[in-house]
Amino acid sequence: MNPRSGNLDKPMLAMLTDADFRNLLEHLNRPWAGYRKVRKGVKKRVRRHMQNLGCSTVEQYLAQRTNQPGVKAAQEQCLRITISRFFRDRHLWQTLRTRCLPGLVERFSPPIRIWSAGCANGEEPYSLAMLWDEVRCLPALDILATDAGEACLDRARTGAYSRSSLKEVPDEMRERYFESRKGGRQFLIRSHRMTPICWRQHDLLDPLPDGGPFHMILLRNNLLTYYQGPDLQAAFTRVVAILSPGGWLVTGAHERLPVSALKLIMDKGCPWVFRLDTIDPRRINQAGT
């Protein structure tokens, strides 16, 4: 027994091997490929949670999902990845600035509605708001930023970030939109200088949030990376269903789209951006094609 343990009756889990973790992911319909590079921190959280529940095997841990209320939500929290930074994948943001955002302004009446789905700690929607502010001739913008973790949303609302989160931010933008704190170790975003963001808690596996249809949906490095099978297919279908025809779907740099009845056309300049065909798929179905 471990004398430092809070509960001496709980069996000790010596380690959570990769084989154990893969077994857990398989049962939870999560892809090993998505978690492989970030598994160290996730395994640490899962192991700690297993120990708190008194579980010495993955099978016991999985059984707790039905035996104890609230365990499922805590397990899902252990599997969440919130790593991000401002203007992640610079080529994407250049594409958004030069083609996608101006294209939305040409095709749709204001306000332009954009959903940052699975926004983690807020770097993505803030990046979007800064980009929109930089192109000053653009009309009104509504940004909905959602994440399943309330702690992430609290941090996003606070707007305090480490220097490493800003490594892709140009110097002039850092000076304009951030206030340096703690000798340059922390930066506080000047949210009053950009379009307001609506922060809302939402799990991508749950029914859709209000506010659609959206002219652009950023679905990056979350659903398409960390889910698979029926859960992924059902959630993706719901998300794309509230994208306006002619609007943009933005994915992560290493993600692939699942099968969809809707026609998503890859942008020639950036393979992570897709435009929803303006043909109504309901007319195609009615025609029997």
At a glance:
With 289 residues, the chain is α/β, with parallel strands linked by helices. It has two domains: 18-78, no CATH class; 90-287, Vaccinia Virus protein VP39 (Rossmann fold), CATH 3.40.50.
Reconstruct the topology from this structure.
Elements: H1 18-27, H2 32-35, H3 39-53, H4 58-67, H5 71-78, H6 90-107, E1 112-117, H7 123-134, E2 141-147, H8 150-158, E3 160-162, H9 171-177, E4 178-181, E5 186-189, E6 197-201, E7 214-219, H10 223-226, H11 229-241, E8 243-251, E9 264-266, E10 273-276, H12 281-287
Parallel strand pairs: 1-2, 1-7, 2-6, 7-8
Antiparallel strand pairs: 3-5, 4-5, 8-10, 9-10
Mean of residue pLDDT? Answer: 89
State the CATH topology of the largest domain. Answer: Rossmann fold
Identify the strand order in the major beta sheet. Answer: 6-2-1-7-8-10-9
Q: Beta-strand level of the residues, as a percent range?
A: 15-25%
Q: Supply Rg.
A: 21 Å
- Secondary-structure content class: alpha/beta
Helix-strand topology string: HHHHHHEHEHEHEEEEHHEEEH
**Uncertain stretches of 5 or more adjacent residues:** 1-8, 281-289
Largest sheet: 7 strands, mixed
Helix content: 40-55%
CATH architecture of the largest domain: 3-Layer(aba) Sandwich
CATH superfamily of the largest domain: Vaccinia Virus protein VP39
N- to C-terminal separation?
66 Å
Total helical elements? 12
Shape designation: globular
Strand segment tally = 10
CATH class wording of the largest domain: Alpha Beta
